[in-house]
Amino acid sequence: MIYHAPKTLKEFASIASKYGKEAAIVAGCTDVLIKKNFFDNKKTVISTNEIEEIKKIEETEDKIRIGAGVTFTDLLCSKPIKKHCKALYEAAKVCGSVQIRNRATIAGNIINASPAADSIPPLMVSDATLILFKDDKEERIKIKDFFTGPGKTKLKHGQIVAYIELDKDKDNTISFYRKIGTRKALSIAKASVAFRAIKTNGNLSSVNVSYGSVGPTVINSVKAREYLENKALTESTIEEASLMAFGEVSPIDDVRSTAEYRRLVVKNVMIEELRPFIDN
Hints:
- The protein is α+β, with helices and mostly antiparallel strands.
- It folds into two domains: about 1-165, 2-Layer Sandwich (Uridine Diphospho-n-acetylenolpyruvylglucosamine Reductase, domain 3), CATH 3.30.465; about 175-275, 2-Layer Sandwich (Enolase-like, domain 1), CATH 3.30.390.
- Helix content is about 30%, strand content about 25%.
- The protein has ten helices and 14 strands.
- The strands form four sheets. Strands 4-5-10-6-7 form a five-stranded antiparallel sheet. Strands 11-12-13-14 form a four-stranded antiparallel sheet.
- Strand 13 and strand 14 form a beta hairpin.
């Protein structure tokens, strides 16, 4: 097996185009031992870890652009992420261990397409766009349209997620990411909730809600989101939205939790996290 470590996206595209389906593309490699069959029938490994152009976090007036090679530790050390992407910052804090965060990249977390991934719910509520790269060409796709099933995406052979663009939180943005697991650290989510909205004169707009680990993919809310749009946060509206969330998710029983518990977690997290934003 041949190992390649291209220095630029253009060099990556040339190598990936040559090998196609026979190339295994890796970054932080935190899941290599877990997915041992990942290298079956592959002739080459292409590491994106030496591509410096995708290791940056940049900001414009209203957007944050995150390179695919940015690690979770990079996210935690970034002032723009802490200030303008609160839900993603909170997700980075609870992702894996220090050692994993030092290696694991945001693009790797996305491409794994786990419904329990920590980065996906906050990126969904921030209306993130993925910029895909192949053969020296870019393709843009909304993250909410990227996943087709557990571990499955619309990514083509030889294509990578090069950048992630998301909306910056404004001064009147309210947002959160909450993950419930067996323990406080090194835990895979039994259920998670991300929320983001603009609060103006007491009313919400641009509401986005997503749920992790309660379906075959991360679920982008429809009912709870539409219900809260243009409404004020009160005990009654929060309770109603939490009931809608309870009904929107489609969890299963597995070794980590029961479906019923996961539904209750989503409902209760909505109530607990939104209550502090009620105007007194």
